Amino acid sequence: MSERSARGILFADICEMIKAQNLSYRIEGKPILESVSLVLGRGERMSVVGPNGAGKSTLLKCLARIYQAAEGEIEIDGRKQRALSQRELAKLMSYIPQADGFVPPYTVAQFVLMGRYPHLSPFSTPSAEDREAVDRAMSWTGIEEFSARRLDSLSGGERQKVFIAAAFAQDAPLLLLDEPTTFLDPKHQDEVRELLVAAQARGTSMIAVTHDLNEAVLGSDKILALNHGREVYQGDVAGFMQAEVLQAVYGKSFVFVDHPQNGRRMMLPNVMEGGGCGEK
Ligand SMILES: Nc1ncnc2c1ncn2[C@@H]1O[C@H](COP(=O)(O)OP(=O)(O)OP(=O)(O)O)[C@@H](O)[C@H]1O
Question: Matching SUPFAM superfamilies, A to Z (predicted)?
Fold first, then answer.
C-alpha cells in the first residue's frame, strides 16, 4: 500500500522519475504505438527492445515530446510533460537520438556547451557554473583532448562520447538514449557502457533503446519489449530472459549459454531453427 507524506503526496509518486500511461501515436492514421505505459523510478535504468519497426524510437520521441502522443499522459518528476516549457523539460530530460549521419557544424567545446542551454540566460555569457558543468562532462567522458576539433573530424565512437558529454552537461536527471552503442566497435561499446554505468551510479535515470539483448539485460532494472507498437513484456531482467517471452517478442527462438569467463547468462539466436542453416 502507498504511504502518504505529511503533505499528502503519494510516496510512490515521489520516487517516480517518469511515468507514461496509455500512450498512443499514429502517423497518417496508422497506429505506431498503442496504449503503452511505463514507470521508471529514480536512478533506475530501463532498456527498450523489440524488432525493427516495433515503435521503440517513436516511444522515446513521445517521451521527449519530439512527437506529441495522440493519447495518454506523461509525467516527469511528478509534473505533466505537456505543461512544461521547453526549458523546464530540458532541465529534466536529455535525449540522444539515433546516429543518422548528420553532424552538426560545431567544435566539440561549442557543442558540449550547447547542452547547457536550459540553464543559460538569453544574451548572457556562460557562467562559471556552466563552464564547470562543461569541463566536468568532458572529463567524465574523456574528450578533453578533442575540445577544439570539429565534430565532423571525429570518428563515430568519439562523436558518440561528445553527444553523451553534451547530455551530461545538460545536468538533467533523466537520460533518453536511442541505440547509443550501435555502429560502435566492441571497445567503444564498452567505453560508452561504462559512461552510462557511471552516470547511473551518480543517480541519473535512463531509458535506452537497444537491439543488443545482452547489453539490455546487463545493468538494466527493467526491460520493456515492444512489437507492432504494443507492449509484449515489461518487468525485470529474469522475467525477460525466458524462451517464451523472447519468442513472443521476436517470433523466433533463442538459446541460453553461460559466459565462459564470468558465468553470466546470455541469449543467442537459435541458429538451428528453420532448417539448420547454422550447421558448418
Ligand atoms: N515519419 C514516418 N512516416 C511513416 N511511418 C513512420 C514514420 N516514422 C516511423 N514510421 C513507422 O513507424 C514504425 C515504428 O518506427 P520506429 O522507428 O519507432 O521503430 P523502431 O522500433 O525504433 O525500429 P528500428 O529498430 O528499426 O529502429 C515503423 O513501421 C516505421 O516505418
Answer: P-loop containing nucleoside triphosphate hydrolases
- Which atom of ligand 1 is closest in space to residue 55's alpha carbon? 18
Same domain, 43 and 137: yes
Q: Which domain holds residue 121?
A: 11-240
Ligand 1: which of 32, 60, 250 to mutate, judged by most atoms within 8 Å of the beta carbon? Answer: 32
CATH number at residue 49: 3.40.50.300
Residues 236 and 261 in one domain: no
Please list every protein residue whose CB sits less than 6 Å from any atom of ligand 1.
27, 32, 50, 52-58
Q: Are residues 58 and 172 in the same domain?
A: yes
Q: Is residue 5 part of a domain?
A: no
pLDDT digits 0-9 by tens, 5-63: 444 444 444 579 999 999 999 999 899 999 999 999 999 999 999 999 999 999 999 99
Cα separation, 259 vs 215, in Å, equals 13
Q: What total number of domains does the chain contain?
A: 2
pTM, rounded to two decimals? 0.89
Q: Tell me the three cell numbers of residue 151.
A: 565534430
Q: Is the interface score ipTM higher than 0.90?
A: yes
CA 262 – CA 269 distance, rounded (Å): 20
Hey, whose CA ends up nearest to atom 1 of ligand 1?
A: 27
Nearest CA to ligand 1 atom 2: 27
The pLDDT tens digits for 170-179 are 999 999 999 9
Q: 201 C-alpha vs ligand 1 centroid, how far in Å?
A: 32
Residue with CA at minimum distance from ligand 1 atom 16: 55
**Neighbouring residues of 208: CB distance < 8 A, sequence distance ≥ 6:** 45, 46, 47, 48, 176, 177, 178, 180, 196, 216
